[in-house]
Amino acid sequence: MCGIVGYIGVQQAYPILIKGLHRLEYRGYDSAGVSMINEEGTLSVFKEKGKVAALEASVEGKDISGTIGIAHTRWATHGEPNAKNAHPHYSQSKNLSLVHNGIIENYKTLRTKLEEKGFEFQSDTDTEVLVQLIEYQEEKDNCDLYTAVQRSLKIVEGAYAIAVLDKRNPDVLIAARKSSPLIIGVGQNNHENNGQAEFFLGSDATPIIEYTNQVVYLKDEEIAYMDRDGHLRITNLANVEQTPDMQTLQMNLDELEKGGFPHFMLKEIYEQPNALRNCIRGRLSIEEKDIKLSGIIDYREKFLSARRIIICACGTSWHSALIGKYFIEEAAQIPVEVEYASEFRYRNPVITANDIVIAVSQSGETADTLAAIQLAKEKGAFIYGICNVIGSSIARATDTGTYLHVGPEIGVASTKAFTGQVTALFMLGLAIAKEKRTLSDDMFHMLIDELLMIPDKMQWTLEHNKDVEKFSQIFTYAKNFIYLGRGYNYPVALEGALKLKEISYIHAEGYPAAEMKHGPIALIDEEMPVVVIAPKKGMYDKVVSNIQEIKSRKGKIISVVTEGDTTVRDMSDYCFEIPDTRDCYVPLLAAIPLQLMSYYVAVAKGRNVDQPRNLAKSVTVE
Ligand code: G6P
C-alpha cells in the first residue's frame, strides 16, 4: 500500500502534492518523493527516505516550481526503504517519471529483458521496470506516451495504480490502474483560473476533497489522459473509449482517511479479504497448484536439515506463531517451539546451528523480539523473519524471510496483520512440506486450493455477521469473559480474549476448552459470557460436551460455528457463522467475528478504539 498524488492545472503543483502526501501517509511512510515539470521544461525528481517531512526538508532551496507534478509516499514491497528505491522513478533518458502503487509480479523477467536491451536500472524496485518498459515501448513502436503506457500495461502482471509525467509533453498527465485504487478529481474552479482546467489525482479522495468534490473512480485496466485544456479521456487496455462516471463526494476528510469507516480498526477488519489476497499474490498459484516462497527456495538445504524451529514473538504475533506451530508440525513434520521473546532472551536457551529461529512481528521493531533473534544469531541459528514493515529492524536482522504485504496497520489492536501472519506461516509450512515431501500430492494441492479460497470466505464471514453490532451491546455489562477453543482454535481463543481486553478493558481469558474442568469452570455463573469456537471439524463432539458443561452452570454461550450447524446454534445464546473450511484454516475465519465483537463492545463502552489506554502499536522498549 502506497499513496499517490498528482496535479495538472494553473496552480503551483508542489504545495498541493505535499499536502496530499501528508494525508496519504497512513498508507505508507518509509520514503516519499515528488516530480514536477517547471516553466523551462525541466523534469525534476526529489525523493527522500523517511516521512513526508523529511522530503520537505530536503527540497529546501531547490527549484520546486511547476504546474504539473506527481508524488508518492511509499510502503516498500520490493527493495529496501531508501532514497534510491523511493518513487518517482526516472526512465533511462530521464524524459519520463512515474509513481506506482501495487506489485508488478513479472518484474524480474521484464527487467532481465530490458537489461539485455541496454537499460540500466538505478533501483531494486519492481516500479522502475514499468517506467523503463514504457520508454522502451515508445521508442520501439514510435508511438505516443498514452499508447506506450497502454501497451506496457498489457505486458505487466500484477497490481498497479500509476501516474506518469513526460517532459516533452508538459501539458499532459497520464494515469492508470488495476487492483490498486486511483481517483481523478475534476477541478471546479475553472472560472477563477480564467477558464483553465485542472485535474487532481489521489489514491483516495483525501488529497482532492479540498479542491473539488467532483471525482471519477478509475476502474480496473483503465487509462486516463488529462490535459490543461480540460480534456479527460479514458480508455481500457484494448483502447476502447470509456465514459467517465463523474460522482459527487459527500464525505468529509476524516471519514475519507478511514475509507468511510469510523475507526481504522474497523477499516482494517474489513480490509482482510484483500489484504490476504495481497499476501498470497505471486506466492500461491492456482494454475500450477504450487507455492513459491523465495526465502525457502534460496535456503532449501537449511530447512531440509533443520532439527527444530523456534518461533519468537510477542502479543498477537505470539498467537499467530502458535497456529503456525500446529501447522508446521503437522504439514512439515519438524518440531516447533513457540517462545515469548521477552522470556527467551533472558534464559540461556539451548540453540544449535541446526535450529531455525523465526521472528514474527508486525512492526518489525519490537525490542524483545529483536533481542531474541540477536541472541539466537550469536548462538549460530539461522534466522527467518515474518514482518509486515519492509526494511524494519527485525527484517534487516534476519537471514531471510517473508513479508506480509497486508499494508500498514494503524489501529493499535492488530487485526489484518494477525490473519496475514497466520497466512504467511501457512505458506511457510506448505513450502517446507513441499521441499521435504511430507504431504501427499493430493493433500498439498487441496491445502493450496483451500487457502486460495480463504479471502472469499472471509468476505462471506464479514457480510453474514452484521448483527454482531447489535448483540455486542448486550455484553457491555460483563466484567469478565472466557474464550474457549481446541486444537487450531485454542490460539484463536487467546487472540479473541486479547482483542477484547485491549480495547474494551474487560478482563478476558482464553483457554483450551478441555482445561475448563481444571479450574476455570469455577468462574461460571449466569453473568459469565463464554465464547466458544466450535466449528464442525476434528474435535467437534468434544467441544459440544464442553459447551454442555458450561450451559448446565448457566454460563452465556456465544459460539462460532460452521454455516448450517444447528446443534451448537441451539445450545447458544448468540451465534456467529463461518463457511466450512479445512480444520487448519478455521482460525482465519473464526478470528473475524471475534474482532468485530471486541470492536463493537469497545465502541458501545465509549473506548478509544484506535488508541487504547496504556498501549502502543510498536513497543521499542523492553
Ligand atoms: C504491541 C501491540 C500488539 C502487538 C505486539 C507485538 O503490544 O500493541 O498489537 O501484537 O506489540 O508487536 P509486533 O509488531 O512485534 O507484532
In short:
Helices cover 36% and strands 22% of the residues. With 622 residues, the protein is α/β, with parallel strands linked by helices.
Structure description:
The two termini are 30 Å apart. The longest helix is centred in the C-terminal third of the chain and has 23 residues, at 441-463. This protein has 622 residues and is of the alpha/beta class. An eight-stranded antiparallel beta sheet has the order 3-2-4-1-10-9-11-15. The chain has a seven-stranded antiparallel beta sheet with strand order 5-6-7-8-12-13-14, with helices on one face. It has a five-stranded parallel beta sheet with strand order 19-18-20-21-22, sandwiched between helices. α8 (272-280) runs antiparallel to α16 (441-463), α11 runs antiparallel to α18 and α16 runs parallel beside α21 (586-604). 36% of the residues lie in helices and 22% in strands. The structure holds 6-O-phosphono-alpha-D-glucopyranose. Residues 314-317, 361-363, 366, 369, 412, 414, 615, 617-619 line the site of 6-O-phosphono-alpha-D-glucopyranose.
Write the layout of secondary structure elements.
Elements: E1 3-8, H1 13-24, E2 31-37, E3 43-49, H2 52-58, E4 68-74, E5 89-90, E6 96-101, H3 107-116, H4 127-141, H5 145-155, E7 160-166, E8 172-178, E9 183-186, E10 199-202, E11 214-217, E12 222-227, E13 232-236, E14 241-242, E15 246-248, H6 253-257, H7 264-270, H8 272-280, E16 284-285, E17 290-291, H9 294-297, H10 300-305, E18 308-313, H11 315-332, E19 336-340, H12 341-344, E20 355-361, H13 367-378, E21 382-387, H14 393-397, E22 400-403, H15 416-436, H16 441-463, H17 468-472, E23 480-485, H18 489-504, E24 507-512, E25 529-534, H19 540-551, E26 556-562, H20 566-571, E27 574-578, H21 586-604
Parallel strand pairs: 18-19, 18-20, 20-21, 21-22, 23-24, 23-25, 25-26, 26-27
Antiparallel strand pairs: 1-4, 1-10, 2-3, 2-4, 5-6, 6-7, 7-8, 8-12, 9-10, 9-11, 11-15, 12-13, 13-14, 16-17
Helix pairs in contact: 3-4, 4-5, 8-15, 8-16, 11-15, 11-18, 15-16, 16-21, 18-21
Bound molecules: 6-O-phosphono-alpha-D-glucopyranose.
